[in-house]
Amino acid sequence: MSPFRWLDERLDLRGAKRDLLDREVPARLTWWHTLGSATLTVFLVQVITGTTLATYYSPSPDHAYDSVRYITEHVASGTLLRGIHHWGASAMVILIVAHMIRVFSVGAYKYPREVNWLLGVGLFLVVLGFSFTGYLLPWDQKAYWATAVGTNIAGTTPFIGGALVALLRGGSELGAATLARFYAFHALWLPLLLTVIVSLHLITVIRQGIAARPHALEVGAPPRTSDAAYPAYYREAYAATKRGGMRFWPDILGKDAIVSASVVLLIVLLAVLFGAPLEAPADPTDTSYVPRPEWYFLPIYQLLKLVPGSLESLVAVGVPTALLFAMLALPFFDRGSTRNLLHRPVALAGLVLLLGGSGYLIGAAGPAPESPPLEGPPLSSVQRAGRALYQSQQCGGCHRVAGQGGEEGPDLTGVGLRHSPGWLHSFMESPSRFHAESRMPAYAPPALSHQEIEELAQYLTTLRGRGDQKAEFYDTFPPPRRP
Amino acid sequence: MTGAAGGMVQSGRRAFLKWATAVGGALSGLLAGVPALRAFLSPTFRHERQEKWISLGEAGAFDLDTPVKVDFVDSANDAWVETRRLRNVWVYTEDGERFTVYNGRCTHLGCNYFFDDTEKVFRCPCHTGYFDIKTGNVLGGPPPRALDVLEVKVSDDGVLQARYEDYRLGVPEKTQV
């Protein structure tokens, strides 16, 4: 007896094939129907690459960054693996959103698929959770600061903000406890959750059948899906769509495989060409770093720039929450039996507005800056006093800082990297001692007091360019004045 | 599509889609699976060793005909963590010119052996292995091979150096780990 027959006798493999692969599906399904399976394929790719990365990753602030470096530098195919996981994350967000748009456009969330739509919304949230938690794991500057901002946004939630931040961070500050819990969620909880919901999602698809083209379910339909006659109508109309003799395998699965393989190929290509970014190690003391979230969080990030501060928490927390409730409520409020998007003006307008708005905001956020723009750490009171003097004494009339100011004197951008405060103090007292030809006025008392000169010098030391360079003073003092 | 021609087109389409399922599935699996497998198996075929020459002391200062144990701190890259371990070697010279340096681990199971002054042998305390101090050969006990002899050189300024290397334990062949 062959092994297949042996198993078949016990497990009814033929029956399983008949129910799963040979099941009849609606005729004329489009290529857009492959988006769900492509998302699932990319999830499997993420599982394969992620579990392998986890074998070399250490979720502790002391070692996280070094272990990621180790993966790229010492593990065979390590760079490629990180690249695939990185681009796979983006692909997954794109695919799941595209899949949702497809479902939305053909009204497939309507009767009888309301539950599966809710499961899908759950999957969408889990995927965003993956993105948010995975972003922190490399423990580089980008990871640290983007997560700092992300958790701070959660902190603006009314009433429960403080508790929410503590819950996300595992403490009041972003640190070891945060990394450990983000890792636990990213690598343990969320995969488990996703697997369970995906299973329910697929079981539901198999039980309910793949959604048919909208047109086939609109002809002669009662106006609303809540009408008593609708279920009977639907059963009949849906059964009719299956009479084309199309089977799940190979008619659907073949297309699924073609699209999935193309997507995976594209991800690997992007991974080979661009790899995955890794910036300098996280430095909690570097306050000059300007964080930026991953691109799919950019709409909300950019939106915050457009609203006045008083409304910020409302927008930061309110808009995503409102969108979530809208998605959850959608199948229960939208009960018209029309499924074609073009015949549903409100739905069409909503979709265009949402996609257009998100697209506009991503565009407005612009490409990531090559390097953080000029912006210093918060100034001390002495430095602030110095900055006020810089303005009141019209230093900017002759000197430039970061492209602003006159051109008569030397550019002071990065002067804090070149000179110590002591040297700057002496220079401002009497520039001609240092350079005989200097046309800068001497600010020694009584022009400015020593206190004021020192404040100015302290302010100048904060002008350190982009903040990632090391100061290297070359102070040369003139010979001491002869008495 | 109807009729025989339609049926043939249909069956051709089906055959193609069946083929696509197999090829597409395999391709997706391989594209993600191969790098993952390579990375996972990486330690079995990627050996990154840096040459580690250690200084053992002035060559002229070693006792003649009596082995001397030299301890040193080995700072090793343990994956992404730098660790420090105390290691030791035994130096033997008959004439102060030709030196034999032994890895300080017994070739049986890696215990630190010592010099038995009365019997003039190396003796391992764990399972009573005996080694000859001149050649490192096994004189008795369970060790499967002679002590591991390290490559030595004397630098220009007269310092004895050895290239430290650990070998697989418990096997008759001297193979690097």
Q: Tell me the overall shape of chain B.
A: elongated
CATH architecture label name of the largest domain in chain B? 3-layer Sandwich
Strand order of the largest sheet of chain A: 1-2
The dominant shape of chain A is elongated
Give the H and E element order of chain B.
Answer: HEEEEEEEEEE
Percent range of helical residues of chain B: 10-25%
CATH fold category name of the largest domain in chain B: Rieske Iron-sulfur Protein
Number of strands of chain A: 4
What is the arithmetic mean of pLDDT of chain A? 89
The whole-angstrom Rg of chain B is: 29 Å
Q: Strand share of the residues of chain B?
A: 25-35%
Main sheet characteristics of chain A: 2 strands, antiparallel
Widest sheet, order of strands of chain B? 1-10-9-4-3-2
Strand and helix layout:
The complex is a heterodimer of chains A (483) and B (177).
Chain A: H1 3-11, H2 13-20, E1 24-25, H3 35-54, H4 64-74, H5 78-105, H6 114-136, H7 141-155, H8 161-169, H9 176-208, H10 230-241, E2 246-247, H11 248-274, H12 298-306, H13 312-333, H14 345-365, H15 381-392, E3 400-401, E4 404-405, H16 415-418, H17 421-429, H18 431-434, H19 450-460
Antiparallel strand pairs in A: 1-2, 3-4
Chain B: H1 3-45, E1 53-58, E2 68-78, E3 81-93, E4 99-103, E5 114-116, E6 121-123, E7 130-132, E8 138-140, E9 149-154, E10 159-163
Outline the structure in words:
- The complex is a heterodimer of chains A (483) and B (177).
- Chain A has 483 residues and is an all-alpha fold.
- Chain A is 59% helix and 2% strand.
- Chain A has 19 helices and 4 strands.
- Chain B contains 1 helix and 10 strands; from the N terminus they run H-E-E-E-E-E-E-E-E-E-E.
- In chain B, a hairpin with a 5-residue loop joins strand 7 and strand 8.
- Chain B is elongated, with a radius of gyration of 29 Å.
- Classes of the chains: A mainly alpha (483), B alpha+beta (177).
- The A-B interface holds A 41, 44-45, 48-49, 51-53, 55-56, 58, 63, 66-67, 69-71, 74-78, 80-81, 84, 249-251, 253-258, 260-261, 264-265, 268 and B 14, 16-25, 27-28, 31-36, 38-42, 45-46, 48, 79-81.
